[in-house]
Amino acid sequence: MVGSQSSLREANRARVVDAVKRHGGLTQVELTGATGLSPATVSTIVKELVAAELVEVRNTIRSGRRAQLVTLAHRVGLVAGVLVGARQLTVAVADVSHEVLAEQVLPLPAEHRADTSLDRAALLVVDLLERVGSELDEVLGIGLGLPAPVDAASGQVTVRGILRGWDGVPVAQVLSKRLARPVFVDNDANLGALAESTVGAAREVHDALYVRAGHGVGAGIVLAGRVHRGVAGTAGEIGHVQVDPAGNICSCGSRGCLDTVVGDRALLEPLRSSHGNLTLSDVVRLTNEDDPGCREIVADAGTVVGGVVAGLATSLNPELVVVGGVLAATGEVFLGPMREALRRRTLLQQVTPLEVVPAALGTRAELEGALALALQHTDLLEQPDTGPNGPGDVAVGQVRTGKGNR
Ligand SMILES: [Zn+2]
């Protein structure tokens, strides 16, 4: 029976470490709720993990009361996040307590390709590590976000045409080979959903939708606290839901997709004759400066996106819709019409009315998600194996930095 007791202890320890990994930091009371373990068990495990230098405990204030916040110890290691956008590449290096140590943004050409972009990303990771006085072998894992549906295992884009220069490239493998570190890839909206559901606006919610409205529109679906990706990673790809049967042909080959109506090109075109050549950031800035034409465009986009999200909300019955991406930076100009369209097109019910809120992490949600993805895939606890003193005596907190942790 000693064996089964020690494996239970290991399992409980893993639950505590996983909860701290997911949420960045939790009080002991929150840990009890998140793990389902008793306060006494949580307290014992936290003490053991502190002794093993895997977690740190510091004083904090929660709901006006003093509490002890448990976070992963900084020295455990680093993670890197890489976010590939329509026009830019963002790379960040953070420690395991979710603190970003260095970050940089580089512009990308309009039709960027995997080989050159991943070269730049690899160089930038090394460069940022150098800046914070660290080495590659301190990096436990790298999370990478792409603006297309991807297969989580290979990191390959699963629908051709959406991100042309990346078709057929096993992205995780390529970057992992260049940096000799494990790399995990996901769709950008899924990463936003991951970050918002673990450390952002949907932290306390089981079922939520994350909508990313920017150069294109995508959604991440959180069910029972987990991001739902679907069999080929296309779950939540609302940018490719048809909204205009007579509309333009989309990058995916279909006609009249949401992206052809509210993607950046579609939003900028009607402003060309009145405002000249604007970027999406210009439109957001001008909207926030009360420019009537830009406000009109953004508000109409909110209505159309809300109509499509309503279909998803009717099917999945989430508690909360979190809105991120650059268009959410216009606040109620975008969110108001979106909320109204959702109100009109989902079943009105009295139990838990659907709420629509801006992303707590703002436009940083996807990058934070990339860091969280890397951390989630990292096994920080050595599994008990056949040490000289039996499985019960294996020290906790030995950091695994080897590859193949998936
Ligand atoms: Zn499409």
Describe this structure in words.
The longest helix has 25 residues, at 292-316. The two termini are 30 Å apart. Helix content is 38%, strand content 19%. The chain has three domains: 2-72, Winged helix-like DNA-binding domain superfamily/Winged helix DNA-binding domain (Arc Repressor Mutant, subunit A); 77-191 and 366-376, Nucleotidyltransferase, domain 5, CATH 3.30.420; 203-359, Nucleotidyltransferase, domain 5 (2-Layer Sandwich), CATH 3.30.420.40. Strand 10 (217-223) and strand 11 form a beta hairpin. It is built from 13 helices and 13 strands. It is of the alpha/beta class. The strands form three sheets. Strands 6-5-4-7-8 form a five-stranded mixed β-sheet, sandwiched between helices. The protein binds zinc ion (ZN). Zinc ion binds next to loops.
How are the SSEs ordered, and which strands pair?
Elements: H1 2-23, E1 26-27, H2 28-35, H3 39-51, E2 55-62, E3 65-72, E4 78-84, E5 88-95, E6 100-107, H4 114-131, E7 139-146, H5 171-179, E8 183-187, H6 188-198, E9 208-213, E10 217-223, E11 226-228, H7 258-262, H8 264-268, H9 272-275, H10 280-288, H11 292-316, E12 320-324, H12 332-345, E13 355-358, H13 365-376
Parallel strand pairs: 4-7, 7-8, 9-12, 12-13
Antiparallel strand pairs: 1-3, 2-3, 4-5, 5-6, 9-10, 10-11
Helix pairs in contact: 2-3, 4-5, 6-13, 10-11, 11-12
The structure holds zinc ion.
